[in-house]
Specification:
This protein has a single domain (about 40-220, about 240-315), classed as Rhopdopsin 7-helix transmembrane proteins. The N and C termini lie far apart (about 50 Å). It is built from eleven helices and no strands. By secondary structure, the chain is mainly alpha-helical.
Length: about 325
């Protein structure tokens, strides 16, 4: 089954073209030589996937090993790591499947390949949805811990966190199954894009509000120590930098893929949009890269988790 460059399917039946979404065939053919196409080698996909796999497995093991980390916040971080792990593994599996198909090794196993690809697509979509959900859950958890500090442990209890985690996984798997089954319906794509925008808006509002509260707290401390100007300036720079990194990486890594979905609805046959469609592999690589960065932002900043990770690496169980 020859292909110019394997496109991850995600949005179309694997047995139809093996090059992506059927909606996009005409668009891609209409693009001219001016179209910028960033080619992503399969080796890069595999390398990023392996790095993400190792990194997120270490996060899950570290949290499972240390009883002190068995709290709602770390449960959400653990589930985010598991989601990111599944994103990377499922995309790597589909890359491997495409490479095997290109070699002609599974030419006689068409039905098996179709079923296997459907399972992989459910994993990809489900893990993407769950990653976004747990990013939102972490933002909500941090917001409650700051604005309702005295009542935090009565609001965010372990049973509540467990029910929230179960609900997120069930909703993610169910929605991804529907997405794969009804991939060619515009409403499905619009729901995914709306969900991404809602998650982005939630994170922006909560983190900006948390930054404002932290700024007020720093201002009060500065007034007590009569070092107001210096503390204000340093806090503004540090707080703005942290917020920019956190939200900027989220938007840069996830935004292009959901813009891709948006353009499928708005201009599926326009040459300019067709040029954008050609870079699907790049957008998926950015999502895998995000699964590598997430542990650095949400997990490894914890000193206790880093100490546990060190113990895990040294095999001191």
């Amino acid at each position: 089954m020859p292909m110019q460059e394997p496109q991850r399917r995600l949005l179309g039946p694997f047995n139809s073209t093996c090059t992506g979404v059927p909606h996009l065939e005409l668009s891609a053919n209409q693009t001219g030589p001016w179209c910028l196409h960033v080619s992503i080698p399969d080796g890069l996909f595999l390398s990023l996937g392996l790095v993400s796999l190792v990194e997120n497995v270490l996060v899950v093991i570290s949290i499972a090993k240390n009883q002190n980390l068995h709290s709602p916040m770390y449960y959400f971080i653990c589930c985010l790591a598991l989601s990111d792990l599944l994103v990377s593994v499922s995309i790597v599996l589909e890359t491997t499947l495409i490479l095997v198909l290109e070699a002609g090794s599974l030419a006689t196993w068409v039905t098996v390949v179709q079923q296997l690809d459907n399972v992989i697509d459910v994993l990809i979509c489900g893990s993407m949805v769950s990653s976004l959900c747990f990013l939102g859950a972490i933002a909500v958890d941090r917001y409650i811990s700051i604005f309702y500090a005295l009542r935090y442990h009565s609001i965010v209890t372990l049973p509540w966190a467990r029910w929230a985690i179960v609900a997120i996984w069930v909703a993610s798997i169910s929605s991804s199954t529907l997405f794969v089954a009804y991939y060619n319906h515009t409403a499905v794509l619009l729901c995914l894009v709306t969900f991404f925008l809602a998650t982005l808006a939630l994170m922006v509002v909560l983190y900006v509000h948390m930054l404002a509260r932290a700024h007020q707290h720093a201002q009060a401390i500065a007034q007590l120590h009569k070092r107001q100007h210096l503390v204000h300036h340093g806090f503004r720079l540090k707080g703005a930098a942290t917020l920019t990194i956190l939200l900027g990486i989220f938007f840069l890594c996830w935004g292009p893929f959901f813009l891709y979905l948006t353009l499928i609805v708005l201009c599926p046959k326009h040459p300019t949009c067709g040029c954008f469609f050609k870079n699907l592999n790049l957008f998926l690589a950015l999502i895998i890269f995000n699964s590598i960065v997430d542990p650095l932002i949400y997990a490894f900043r914890s000193q206790e988790l880093r100490m546990t990770l060190k113990e895990v690496l040294l095999c001191s169980w």
